[in-house]
Design a protein that fits this description.
3 domains, about 25% strand, 23 strands, BirA Bifunctional Protein, domain 2
Length: about 525
């Protein structure tokens, strides 16, 4: 595919054309930064969620799951710091009247410098060929080191200014870097202000007695307030974790980049409760373990990197992001945070209820520390989908569009294609194969158009296998199975289909790579 902007446009277009993601309320011209998952998208999303849940909960005997309510008592958000501190730095352009996140403008500026580094790497790789050592080049090339130093200086200054709430310096940095409005090119900026991201709502039948509530901006607090309930009813011993997937809501200043940053999104989080003083080793453990989970999907080691936080959140003593190379550059996919005992102590102080753990081995009570892993399900969907979408040049000088989704996540595992749709015997046998396979896999039936065109359609839809039923199938109970990625075809017995497909799509086969 051409440049990154073109690729991203193709990703968005393909997601709609093949029933993965639709603009919400599209018949009414849509709602900004709100999307609906379509018939294939909902399956891909569910499969990603299940893949995470199996790795996080099912395969760990000391991690359990909950599903907390979206509505929570409003004091929850006072205790967590969201009422007072859940803000993003907002800046307006006086000429275009457009609103931006000041930190994102600066990060985008740095991303352009990163693109320059990538260009230098590509040039050098072309020049040196097989002798090229990327790591050595990045650590020794003067121009690259200069670019990297500039990025580090900018991000470090921004981090300190935001931490100190020095919004005047954030604006000064934007002006010094001569950052322009991406749409109009204007550099006429307002002062930077803080903007609270929580959506407010009301609970109650009458306006007089209604209670002010918030839609939860994260799922973590539902875990913290249930810490003791889960610990006692599950007789959990530290260290143990509580996992949850669910919706969260943020009134983003600039929601953009398709489903990367939305106002309604889904998180997959796990809070791991540990003994104070052990956080460094658990931080290292979960950092490594979560990266292994990502790499198990086979989306390329070069597409991931760790990014340690310059600015730590008020509750953290260590934090890192797993970043993924989206079509618009490396961006946060998952966060691993050492949250100390901040959350439980805050809820203890505001509720007046004791939220401590009695350690029978030490014969003492203490407030556990927390190690968090938090991944955006929608971002993971975008990472998987955008990485999978490829255009391949074939030997006959044609191209094919193929969605090389990890087979374990693909919405449809196999499509059954009768060679001739008007042949009742072929159709009957095809439907029989579907009836057998659908107990174990999500399968589809496709009889329209020439078989080559059907192959292309299933390739573009991400289906790992196409099974063609023809005249020979009626004679000897064999079919042709075609593999999406290689386009190789094999003649196999119908009775062997289940085991062939299972080997490629089974969760165990994929998670064993961790």
């Amino acid at each position: 595919m051409a440049n990154n902007d073109d690729k991203f446009k193709k990703v968005i277009s393909h997601a709609k054309e093949y029933g993965y993601v639709f603009q919400s309320s599209e018949v009414y011209d849509g709602l900004s930064a709100v999307y609906d998952y379509a018939q294939n998208g909902v399956e891909l999303k569910k499969n990603i969620r299940d893949y995470w849940w199996k790795a996080m909960v099912q395969m760990n005997d000391n991690i359990v799951g909950i599903d907390a309510a979206i509505f929570m008592h409003p004091t929850t958000w006072k205790a967590s710091g969201h009422v007072d501190a859940f803000n993003d730095p907002l800046i307006d352009n006086k000429d275009s009247k457009k609103r931006y996140r000041a930190d994102v403008l600066i990060e985008d500026y740095c991303a352009k410098i990163e693109n320059k580094i990538e260009k230098e790497v590509k040039k050098a790789a072309k020049r040196f060929g097989d002798a090229f050592n990327k790591e050595e080049f990045l650590s020794t090339n003067g121009r690259v080191l200069g670019y990297q130093e500039k990025i580090n200086t900018i991000l470090s200054r921004m981090g300190k200014s935001l931490e100190n709430e020095d919004l005047a310096d954030v604006k000064a940095l934007i002006e010094e870097l001569e950052i322009a409005d991406p749409l109009s090119g204007s550099k006429n900026w307002t002062d930077v202000k803080q903007f609270n991201l929580m959506f407010g709502t009301k609970l109650g039948a009458s306006a007089d007695s209604a209670m002010d509530l918030y839609l939860r901006p994260e799922t973590a607090q539902g875990i913290f307030v249930n810490f003791l309930n889960v610990q006692k009813t599950g007789r959990m011993k530290i260290p143990f974790g509580i996992a949850q997937t669910g919706k969260a809501f943020r009134n983003e200043i600039v929601a953009r980049q398709f489903i990367f940053r939305m106002r309604e999104f889904e998180q997959m989080e796990m809070q791991f409760f540990i003994k104070p003083g052990t956080q460094a080793e658990w931080f290292k453990h979960w950092k490594e373990h979560r990266m292994k989970w990502h790499l198990s999907l086979g989306m390329g080691e070069d597409n991931y990197r760790f990014h340690d936080h310059e600015k730590l959140a008020h509750y953290a003593d260590a934090a890192t992001d797993i970043e993924f190379k989206f079509p618009f550059g490396f961006k946060e996919l998952e966060g691993i945070h050492s949250r100390t005992d901040f959350d439980l102590k805050q809820h203890e102080a505001y509720s007046g209820k004791k939220l401590q753990y009695f350690d029978h081995e030490d014969n003492a009570s203490y407030t556990p520390y927390v190690l968090e892993t938090s991944i955006g399900l929608d971002r993971m969907f975008l990472a998987v989908f955008s990485n999978a979408l490829q255009e391949e040049e074939l030997e006959n000088n044609t191209t094919r569009t193929v969605l090389k989704l990890p087979a374990v996540l693909a919405p449809v595992k196999a499509a059954i294609l009768p060679l001739v749709r008007k042949d009742e015997a072929l159709v009957k046998l095809s439907k029989g194969i579907i009836d057998d396979l659908k107990w174990d896999f999500s399968v589809a039936y496709d009889e329209k158009d020439a078989v080559g065109r059907r192959y292309r359609r299933q390739d573009a839809n991400g289906t790992p296998f196409c099974i063609t039923v023809d005249g020979e199938s009626l004679e000897n109970n064999t079919v042709t199975i075609r593999h999406r990625d290689t386009m190789e075809q094999q003649r196999v017995k119908i009775e062997d289909l289940k085991s062939i497909i299972k080997k490629e799509v089974d969760v165990k086969e994929w998670l064993m790579r961790m």
